[in-house]
Amino acid sequence: MKLSHSVLSAFFALLLLAGHMPVSAENDHDIVIRGARVLDGAGNPWVHADIAIQDGKIVKIGRVTGSGLREIDASGKYVSPGWIDMMDQSGRALREVGFAPNKINMGVTTLIGGEGGTVVPAAEIDAYFTELGKKGISVNFGTYYSATQARVAVLGDSATDPTLDQLEEMKSLVAQAMEAGAMGITTALIYPPSAYHKTENLIELAKVAAEYDGIYASHIRDESSMFLEAVGEAIRIGEESGAGVEIFHLKAAFYPNWGKDMPKALELMAAARQRGVNVGADVYPYVAGGTGLEITAPNWVYAEGVEQAVAWLQDPDMRTRMKQELAAGPAPEWTNLVYSSGGWKNVVLANSYLEAYTQFHGKNFQEIGEALGRDPADIAWDILLEAQPNRPLALFFMMSEEDVRLALQSPFVSIGSDAASALKEGDLDDLGLPHPRSYGTFPKIIANYVRDQKVLSLPEAIRKMTSWPATRMGLSDRGLLREGLAADIVVFDLEIIEDTATWAEPTAKPTGIEYVIVNGELVLDDGIHTGATPGVVLRGPGYSR
Fold it and tell me: Which of 420, 456, 424, 414 is nearest to 435 (CA)?
């Protein structure tokens, strides 16, 4: 059959036009997620949609007609931006092993570390970040630098106040860290030598961070009897320096004031925000914290350095004085966590690093004291001395569930695990602390506080774990499901998601988190870590290169 000239011309015109049409662009995406209930991270209700991913980015949300090299059927499942851990401890662990299996299993794609600072001095931060990038990490990672690192570099670990020249030296180290990509500066004011920082000096150091749009983040000076004063100090540092403020693991850890102090603290923060102070906080969803046994001795024990501290901890007369101070209760110069928790019966030996005490792991110190016929304080301090150079750890049951729930409901509170990456799946995290927060924090928010207790709506919980922390940290390409943004994504089943980690089995893997995508690559595939390391280092706003 012969075709007329006009028909042939029209045919070739259509072929030419098709070459310029975008239809082929929807074919062969790297990943297509089909039929999901999509939570965008901004707090909006879910919508049905497909998501196409190409070259590490989200390229389509809606009806995706093209195919994916990998197709994921998410029918009946929820899809959200990757979850952000605002209080991570993985700076050292990622340097050794980059897989972060416990974080990935929890749906976490981004870690913000550095309560204790960077694992290298200020001058080496840039090289440390480069090292992580070359080594390969499964998660995105950003970190603060510690004001106490600067202090120790200039003053050592004593309680000495810096001179003006020494303060300038500390400020220059902060500036160097910010230009290398630190997110801001931190303090852990409950612990010596960080406890020796004066407020006025912290304001000066925070001013430097503020010049680079950095944040002042703090484990505040007291979380027990002086909790409200410590919140006020953190707010003051932000208000007078111009830096944003992040209060780490917000907790009202003083049993006589349960139900009283947390509402007041949230009111203080809300009032500060009304004045223009960029203050927020993070929490973990547990009633026990975990830390080293060194906190059971008053701060003055450490004021003249490690050698003197060891001598005093061995001195029977000094121990008598220390026990009297433990029994006396709150003191302005020291957070007495034993008293704040309600006594040794609420302090549990978590990890002694000593074979002789392994049988007592998971027991409270009152029980241990009764079994050994000794004072619990003497047992704690003996373990502290004998375990060196390891840091023996305890769990302090010092918060109320009602206060935890109230903090979770605040719109400016995000989620932080206060846990490190594990070097191997199923092992304790790199801190060596057997606390379920290492494996359970984020799924517990969804399973317990959203699905079961309905403390939070699902869109609001996801906002707290995604867009809100991303906005706080200036991560403009993450925290939302939007076309053109980085493809950090979690696929989970709301009906079966569960934090299976408990006090008895703190490393149990959660259920119901099926797929985790980091920068467009599957890192958790049908619940199994793929070994992929597509994570990137997230440098702070002051990065100079």
Answer: 420
Could you give the 3-state DSSP secondary structure of residue 201?
Answer: helix
Instruction: Answer whether residue 522 shows pLDDT above 90.
Output: yes
Contacts of residue 198, Cβ cutoff 8 Å, sequence gap at least 6:
161
Q: What percent of the chain has a predicted confidence (pLDDT) above 70?
A: 95
Do residues 359 and 420 touch, judged by C-beta distance below 8 A?
A: no
Q: Binning pLDDT at 50, 70 and 90, where does residue 34 land?
A: very high
Q: What is the end-to-end Cα distance of the chain in Å, rounded?
A: 68
pLDDT at 16 over 90: no
Backbone angles phi and psi of 229, in degrees to 5:
-65, -35
Closest CA to 185 of 245, 131, 132, 110: 245
Of the candidates 187, 174, 175, which has an alpha carbon nearest to the alpha carbon of residue 220?
A: 187
d(CA 349, CA 53): 47
**Quick one: tokens of 135?**
């080594």
Distance from C-alpha of 172 to C-alpha of 150, rounded to nearest angstrom: 9
Residue 62 β-bridge partners: 50
**How much is the pTM?**
0.92
pLDDT tens digits along 466-499:
999 999 999 999 999 999 999 999 999 999 999 9
Mean pLDDT of the chain: 94
| pLDDT > 50? residue 392 | yes
Check: CB of residue 162 under 8 Å from CB of residue 201: yes
Would the CA dihedral through 434, 438, 443, 447 be positive or negative?
positive
Residue 382 has pLDDT above 70, yes or no: yes
Name every residue whose Cβ is closer than 8 Å to that of residue 224 and which is 6 or more positions away in sequence. 253, 254, 330, 335, 336, 337, 339, 340, 398
> Which residue, among 350, 346, 357, 360, has the nearest Cα to 431 in the 3D structure?
350
As a whole number of angstroms, the distance between CA 517 and CA 490 comes to 6
Query: Cα–Cα distances in Å, from 59 out to 26, 54, 179, 477?
Result: 9, 6, 32, 13
Determine the pLDDT at residue 27.
61
Distance CA 122, CA 178 (A): 9
Cis peptide bond N-terminal to 45, omega within 30:
no
- Asked if residues 208 and 537 have their Cβ atoms less than 8 Å apart, the reply is no
Q: 318: alpha, beta or left, given left = phi > 0 and alpha = psi -120 to 50?
A: alpha
pLDDT tens sequence across 318-364: 999 999 999 998 887 888 999 999 999 999 999 999 999 999 999 99
Beta-sheet pairing, 29-38 with 47-54 = antiparallel
pLDDT over 70 (residue 545)? no
Q: Report helix, strand or coil for 533.
A: coil
* Token pair of 122 as six digits: 């200020």
At 17, the pLDDT band (50, 70, 90 cuts) reads very low
Closest Cα partner for 140 from 181, 186, 199? 181
Q: Which strands sit side by side in the sheet containing 215-219, from one edge to the other?
A: 145-146, 184-188, 215-219, 244-247, 279-283, 413-415
